Recover the amino acids of this structure.
């Protein structure tokens, strides 16, 4: 007999895997799928009988062939009782008890195969590869063993590697944490025409704890900051993470940079045994007025590049570095940006970059670059500044993180002709009807086409249903805020709830190609919302989920009103 | 939502009026289940007076189609407005359910 291999049968899942393997083997060897299914069924039955009878439970698979015919052998090891085997006899061409050379008892099921003579080597190889395929359980065991080995070698490594190596790997982890926290998608606010922002952080190999953040606090307050944490590696990265989180959660309900940083400073200074600190420039821009309030806590003063080309340093100081002393009250200043003005923020990695002769880049060179740059976009300005640093640095090693950010103000959007309503709903399903009713009145009043109105009705039904049904872990009353705005051809909807953090647009879209009987019920709503709207976005602001949706009202929609569906 | 039933030949025509959404789908499902339990096997839902349909409404239609299909009957749908039609297209329901543009078309050979 030519041995094809063995399949361990140690768990319920391995019975199923054995069944699948035997089916595949039989299909190939028998060329008869009905017979193959019969064998697979027999394997399940016998597999269950030998299951749980000890560590040697297995099915050995073999094949042979001579002038008289060919046979497939399935030997079931481990079953102590043969009484129930009898009824399985008709699944095989022969079924008998047997014993191997080591005295192990087994039940052998024989199946006649088509053809005569020794089976071709190609077939044998193929069958062998099916049988020997690693089962999930085997793989799991293997992975666990590998993990243990890995753990062991890691332990060894930890003990033997030099201090320098260890430090390097820790720096890498810190670096990963640092980079994973940055908003890296630009343009960050593609649907905003009133302002734009671009930022870049280029990490140094060793030192450096730079970070930046940029987010909308509400519809017209844009928060931006650039900072630099003392220290390096994991502790610095974690300190940075905490700083960033504290700022963002505080800013959700506080529009004063001075107040935000005073609060963050107190939090960070308290029990700051590691004596780490952070320099930071934090600003909040009101895009309706162009006014930006800012606080500089020990950071490099940014520059304001006016639309007329003038370059103004924002060099007011509002308090010391953050994290050093509890209870400090930071101050703030206001600067009004005119349309076309651009703020340029950076870290000392820029001005302290060094060339091959270890000379500093310096403030003057940065001023020259900013003066010379013909501003067209925030991305262009960021790129120009960074390129100049690289040019200056030449082949010298980058000593510190280099971070730059450009915030441009383009002027408030003309909101004459902007219609807006703010609605609230309690967390009861009946309230969906109230929102839809109010929206319908709004739509009618401002001539929103029927076809658009109906799609937005659908959106409210889906999203409010989700929030009301799933967002809250308690039985308390909650308020969902709905803001609807119509500006020209742009219909905007914002839905804000204080439920648990949940991004509805993160899930996997349902398979819409399945037939009626295969269709699972549910999972469609968000998919519909994403498709009927032109733009959807989710953000977590402090303790609130904010979903923003936009629908562009195309002129032809008007004509489609009376059109018959296809 | 208003639901009205007329029987034409062996076809039970359900005329819906309003929205088939979160708040109306339970009643609509009960109503339709009542018709099926009462012996209706050929069901035509006329959406001419339906404003919009959300996924909760689609669930009703899917459940109805499965229920009828299981007992040898079938569900036909007609009279979708543009927004409802889009929902059917996006969800793939226009290919898995029998959708007709008018009641007359739907009655043909039913």
């Amino acid at each position: 007999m030519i041995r094809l291999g063995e399949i361990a049968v140690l768990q319920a899942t391995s019975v199923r895997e054995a069944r699948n393997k035997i089916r595949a083997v039989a299909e190939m060897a028998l060329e008869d799928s009905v017979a193959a299914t019969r064998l697979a069924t027999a394997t399940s039955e016998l597999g269950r009988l030998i299951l749980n009878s000890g560590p040697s439970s297995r099915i050995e698979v073999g094949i042979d062939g001579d002038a008289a015919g060919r046979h497939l052998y399935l030997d079931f090891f481990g079953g102590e009782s043969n009484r129930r085997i009898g009824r399985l006899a008709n699944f095989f061409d022969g079924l008998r008890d047997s014993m191997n050379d080591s005295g192990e008892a087994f039940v052998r099921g024989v199946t006649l195969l088509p053809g005569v003579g020794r089976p071709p080597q190609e077939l044998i190889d193929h069958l062998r590869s099916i049988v020997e395929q690693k089962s999930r359980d085997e793989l799991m065991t293997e992975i666990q063993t590998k993990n243990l080995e890995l753990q062991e070698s890691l332990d060894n490594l930890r003990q033997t590697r030099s201090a320098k190596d260890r430090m390097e790997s820790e720096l890498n982890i810190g670096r990963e944490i640092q980079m994973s926290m940055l908003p890296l998608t630009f343009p960050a606010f593609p649907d905003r025409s009133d302002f734009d922002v671009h930022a870049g952080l280029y990490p140094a190999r060793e030192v450096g704890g730079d970070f930046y953040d940029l987010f909308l606090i509400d519809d017209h307050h844009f928060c931006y900051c650039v900072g630099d944490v003392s220290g390096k590696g994991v502790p610095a990265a974690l300190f940075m993470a905490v700083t960033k989180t504290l700022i963002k959660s505080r800013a959700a309900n506080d529009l004063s940079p001075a107040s935000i940083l005073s609060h963050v400073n107190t939090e960070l200074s308290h029990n700051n045994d590691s004596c780490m600190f952070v320099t930071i420039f934090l600003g909040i821009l009101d895009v309706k007025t162009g006014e930006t309030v800012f606080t500089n806590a020990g950071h490099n003063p940014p520059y304001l590049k006016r639309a007329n080309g003038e370059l103004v340093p924002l060099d007011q100081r509002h308090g010391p570095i953050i994290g050093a002393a509890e209870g400090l009250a930071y101050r703030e200043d206001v600067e009004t940006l005119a349309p076309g003005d651009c703020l340029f923020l950076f870290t000392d990695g820029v001005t302290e970059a060094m060339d091959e002769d270890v000379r500093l880049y310096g403030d003057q060179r940065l001023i020259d670059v900013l003066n010379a740059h013909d501003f067209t976009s925030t991305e262009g300005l960021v790129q120009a500044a960074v390129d100049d640093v690289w040019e200056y640095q030449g082949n010298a090693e980058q000593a510190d993180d280099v971070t730059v950010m450009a915030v441009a103000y383009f002027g408030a959007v003309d909101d004459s002709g902007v219609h807006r309503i703010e609605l609230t709903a309690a967390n009861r399903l009946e309230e969906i009807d109230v929102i839809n009713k109010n929206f319908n009145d709004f739509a009618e009043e401002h001539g929103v086409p029927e076809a658009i109105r109906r799609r937005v009705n659908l959106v409210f039904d889906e999203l409010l249903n989700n929030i009301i049904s799933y967002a809250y872990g308690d039985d308390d009353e909650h308020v969902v805020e709905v803001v609807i705005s119509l500006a020209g051809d742009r219909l905007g909807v914002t839905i804000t709830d204080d439920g648990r953090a949940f991004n509805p647009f993160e899930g996997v879209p349902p398979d819409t190609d399945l037939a009626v009987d295969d269709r699972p019920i549910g999972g469609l709503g968000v998919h519909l919302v994403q498709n009927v709207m032109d733009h959807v976005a989710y953000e977590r602001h402090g303790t609130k989920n904010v979903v923003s949706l936009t629908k562009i009202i195309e002129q032809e929609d008007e004509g489609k009103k009376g059109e018959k569906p296809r | 939502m208003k639901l009205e039933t007329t029987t034409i030949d062996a076809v039970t025509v359900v005329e819906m009026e309003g929205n088939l959404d979160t708040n109306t789908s339970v009643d609509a499902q009960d109503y339709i289940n009542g018709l099926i339990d009462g012996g209706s096997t050929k069901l035509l839902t006329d959406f001419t007076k339906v404003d919009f349909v959300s996924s909760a409404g689609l669930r009703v239609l899917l459940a109805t189609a499965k229920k009828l299909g299981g007992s040898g009957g079938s569900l036909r749908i007609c009279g979708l407005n543009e927004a409802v039609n889009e929902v059917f297209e996006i969800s793939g329901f226009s290919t898995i359910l029998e959708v007709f543009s008018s009641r007359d078309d739907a009655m043909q050979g039913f």
